[in-house]
């Protein structure tokens, strides 16, 4: 819709609103919808089918973009899983050391030997306190990493499911579009056949005209043959007079001689 046409509709709507009240705006909207519908109906089906196919092809970059995002998120999940695995291994090692120190302090000794060095019970208790605080903080961090991994894994699964649904719908739309294209071609073929049926009338009329011309030529040839005969010439040969008996015998294929009648016998005497 051009700017002039749209501006004219708006101006007409304002004038109608001033003259007939704001209820007239519904008529203006209805007119706009009618114009849009008429324009849409005027677009050839072949063009609309090509436009739908172009829209489907335009989805391919978006699908690839989403697939790339999913692949990147899955790579991030792999890294997070490795980080969680390392944290779990450290946690098990630190937990073992904490338990060892705790068991040593539970013996009530005043000094302890670790890696060739001697440590007092107070030093061991202070070290155990620091280790235990770090361990609890590491446990909280590990729990958060696990929650993060679960959330991101669910997000990737949802994205994959959505992607699969999009691809399925896209494939279904492609199939439906091909079916529409086939139906459109069948309609075109039917219309072409209908036009050919109309041409059959022309073909029949042409055939009749040729038959009439042939008949006229036949009449002309016969007339010319009659006109070229010379009826005023003297015949030079005597026309043959075939015996009726021979003619009948030839007609019926009878080679036996016909018996003479009583009249013929009497005449011969």
Spatial order of strands in the largest sheet: 1-2
**SSE string:** HHHEEHHH
CATH topology of the largest domain: Helix Hairpins
Secondary-structure class = mainly alpha
Shape summary = rod-shaped
**Gap from first CA to last CA:** 121 Å
- Could you tell me the radius of gyration in angstroms? 56 Å
In helices, the fraction of residues equals over 70%
Report the total helices: 6
Number of domains: 2
Q: Notable features of this structure?
A:
mainly alpha; single chain; two-stranded antiparallel sheet; 269 residues; rod-shaped; Helix Hairpins
Short summary:
By secondary structure, the chain is mostly helical.
What report would you give on this structure?
It is a single chain. The chain has 6 helices and 2 strands, in the order αααββααα. With 269 residues, it is an all-alpha fold. It folds into 2 domains: 1-42; 43-213, Helix Hairpins, CATH 1.10.287. It has a two-stranded antiparallel sheet. β1 and β2 (117-120) form a beta hairpin. The longest helix is centred in the middle third of the chain and has 107 residues, at 121-227.
């Amino acid at each position: 819709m051009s700017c002039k046409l749209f501006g004219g509709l708006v101006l007409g709507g304002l004038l109608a609103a001033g003259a007939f009240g704001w209820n007239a705006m519904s008529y203006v909207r209805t007119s706009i919808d009618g114009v849009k519908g008429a324009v849409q109906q005027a677009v050839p089906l072949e063009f609309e089918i090509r436009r739908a196919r172009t829209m489907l092809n335009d989805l391919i970059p978006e699908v690839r973009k989403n697939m790339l995002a999913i692949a990147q998120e899955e790579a991030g999940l792999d890294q997070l899983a490795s980080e969680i695995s390392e944290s779990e291994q450290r946690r098990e090692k630190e937990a073992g050391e904490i338990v060892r120190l705790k068991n040593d302090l539970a013996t009530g000794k005043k000094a302890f030997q670790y890696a060739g060095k001697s440590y007092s019970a107070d030093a061991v208790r202070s070290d155990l306190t620091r280790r235990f605080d770090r361990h609890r903080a590491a446990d909280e961090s590990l729990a958060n990493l696990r929650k993060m991994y679960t959330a991101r894994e669910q997000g990737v699964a949802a994205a994959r499911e959505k992607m699969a649904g999009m691809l399925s719908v896209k494939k279904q739309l492609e199939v439906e579009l091909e079916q529409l294209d086939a139906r459109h071609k069948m309609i075109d073929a039917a219309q072409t056949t209908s036009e050919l049926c109309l041409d059959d009338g022309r073909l029949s009329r042409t055939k009749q005209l040729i038959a009439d011309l042939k008949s006229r030529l036949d009449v002309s040839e016969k007339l010319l043959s009659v006109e070229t005969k010379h009826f005023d010439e003297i015949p030079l040969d005597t026309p043959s007079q075939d015996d009726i008996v021979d003619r009948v015998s030839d007609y019926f294929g009878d080679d036996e001689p016909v018996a003479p009648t009583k009249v013929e016998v009497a005449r011969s005497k």
